Amino acid sequence: MSKDHDHDHHSHAIPSDPALRVQALETVLVEKGLVDPGALDVFVDYYQNEVGPRNGARVVARAWSDPDYRAWLFDDASAAITDMGYAGRQGEDMVALENTAQVHNMVVCTLCSCYPWPVLGLPPVWYKSAPYRSRAVIEPRAVLAEFGLELPDDTEVRVWDSTAELRYLVVPMRPVGSDGWSAEQLADLITRDSMIGTGLARDPGAPQESSQT
Fold first, then answer.
1. pLDDT digits (tens, 9 = 90+) for 155-173
2. CA gap 16, 22 in Å, rounded
3. What is the CATH number of domain 52-196?
4. Active site residue: 65, 114, 162, 178, which one?
5. What is the pTM of this model?
């Protein structure tokens, strides 16, 4: 697990629930005239609906279908992701992690909620919650089981701690039955949770329902 905890953290006298924290912070910023509510709505809408996990899904799909790109992604994820046009704040320094039958990677930010916005959009509420941030490190298999993911006993689970300087993208295993699929078709199999490591890519034979929220 990454030991670098050099986050940019601040203590706030606001509620511990993530949703309440965001609401309280937004209220303070708007009251002080530091944030335009309309501009904030546009920003949130952009990351939720235009960016979201779809960018990351396209990165993974390309890695699944293009061996040269796959090698580049694992060698220099920042450059490979930028090559696809996905760059910006919260995604400057990236590392790609490969899930295999032998090793399953999952990502957490133990001290706050560092998250690769350009490829995964806004972090889900559970990612920012104190229980996930603590238990993912202490009992990762139990946490995965709560997401419905039961791994074989001989699969090693590695937990990676994101920081303000370094963020991770999990490349899930390509599911059996997706041979010959186009990159765009493959992207539909890749969920946000599979790129955090709390889930797997979708079964090609299962109904395709969005789980990117």
1. 999 999 999 889 999 999 9
2. 10
3. 3.90.330.10
4. 114
5. 0.76
